[in-house]
Amino acid sequence: MYDTSDIRKGLKIMIDGSPYTVVEFQFVKPGKGAAFTRTKMKNLLTGGVLERNLRSGERLEPADVETKTMQYLYADADSFVFMDTTTYDQVQIPKATIGDQAGFMPENTNVEVLFFNGRAVGVTLPNFIEQAVVEADPGHRGDTATGATKPAKISTGASINVPLFINVGDVIKIDTRNGQYLERLSRA
Amino acid sequence: MPATRAALEARGRILRAVRAWFEREGFLEVSTPARVLSPGQEVHLDAIPAADGHWLITSPEYHLKRLVADGLSPIFEICRCWRAEETGPHHRTEFTMLEWYRANAPLEVLAADCEALVSLAVQAAGRDPAALGLGAPFARTSVRELFARHAGIALTGGETAAELRAAAESAGVGIGTATAWDDIFYQVFLDRIEPELARSGPTFVFDWPAPLGALARPHPRDPRVVERFELYAAGLELANAFGELTDPVEQRRRFEEEAGIRAARGKAVYPIDEALLAALPQMPPTAGIALGLDRLIMLATGARDISEVQAF
Fold this sequence. Notes:
The complex is a heterodimer of chains A (188) and B (312).
Chain A: E1 2-3, E2 12-15, E3 18-28, E4 36-43, E5 49-55, E6 59-62, E7 65-75, E8 79-84, E9 90-94, H1 95-98, E10 110-116, E11 119-124, E12 128-136, E13 149-154, E14 159-163, E15 171-175, E16 180-186
Antiparallel strand pairs in A: 1-6, 2-3, 2-6, 3-4, 4-5, 7-8, 7-10, 8-9, 10-11, 12-13, 12-15, 13-14, 15-16
Chain B: H1 5-24, E1 28-29, E2 35-36, E3 55-56, H2 61-69, E4 75-82, E5 94-103, H3 107-124, E6 139-142, H4 143-151, H5 161-170, H6 181-199, E7 203-209, E8 218-219, E9 222-233, E10 236-243, H7 248-264, H8 274-279, E11 286-292, H9 293-301
Parallel strand pairs in B: 1-4, 6-7
Antiparallel strand pairs in B: 2-3, 4-5, 5-11, 7-9, 8-9, 9-10, 10-11
Helix pairs in contact in B: 1-3, 3-9, 4-6, 5-6
């Protein structure tokens, strides 16, 4: 068990049955009362942020979480298959656990897999990926500066908004955290 | 973040303005020992040892009360105090305290003093109190009113710890493993009250529950609360004032209770200050207050961290 003196950024603790990581903390103490640590934490499962005033002496349960760098190999009917890049062990993660991120996850790419109580519960993708456009309406030549966009599908499966001048076969750079188009790297 | 030259100059001007104000008000400036045998007995204050059984003071209040009992009033002191393991944006192990005492004065006079001192400190920092929302008069409320309004708890000060815990839990405050009255109280206070105070203008919070009495006398109309106020401004706990307890029997009972709690929690137990208890019967009804001078300078200069107003 931890206590409040162990609190530091990145400490992983259980709060109300969910694993959290400490984002920020601050010493607070009413003049006539006990010391507290005002602790801002992020829920590792939902991303939700929580602030708690943790009184000195309160015990904190460590969260059994770890992250492993794993390579995404391929998808089968209902799961994705990842390989531990040091032990070559393979794990299957249900498609529902990965959710919309799957559309931004190229095969043979390293991702960070989060394990909670020994079970894979999520992945963190590389911030940027470079993918070819596989579906898009025809381009509008010369229409490069209006900021107007159109939907396009990338080779990993996600549909994103791209500028009107992007064509099928162009390779583009995408921010996986918000699904935004960043730039065109090469033309078809 | 270390203090800028401008912050240190403002600090100097504020200190001079504060001293000049006390002189105009007819106060005598005194100095009391920094190294004592009986530091504050409060459960949540830990003194730093200073050799040969001595400790560095956590507040000069015991010696100042003895001077008032000897007939000196009004008096003030600006001194260093030390509180072990207190380090944060509003806390330094070593900090500067301003305390003043007025015999035969009601608590409300100290509130007016605070309004004057905040104004002159802000002006000494070259800023306009009214424009910053720091002009007098400050709001006045009570602990009960704050608990009712922001936590939905009908606090009396007479409830047991178990009753307070049940009330906090039904108000949705996560109490953890706290069983002590004050620990439950402060969990509610930090979770529900303090964020509201931080959003409000300067506020005096009067009438604290008797279990948080410390050196304050019971309220004459309701013994479940004591004559005490705290001043909050811009998220800072700036000052704590007491209608000073002068009953040596009750004071000894509180010291012994606090010493017992300290012993039970494995903390250092300090000798009871017998000289203070012996002096209390001679002490006139007195209002006394401690104000964190570094925090006043933070408020006046707009600093967010106490290190911004200290040279080292």
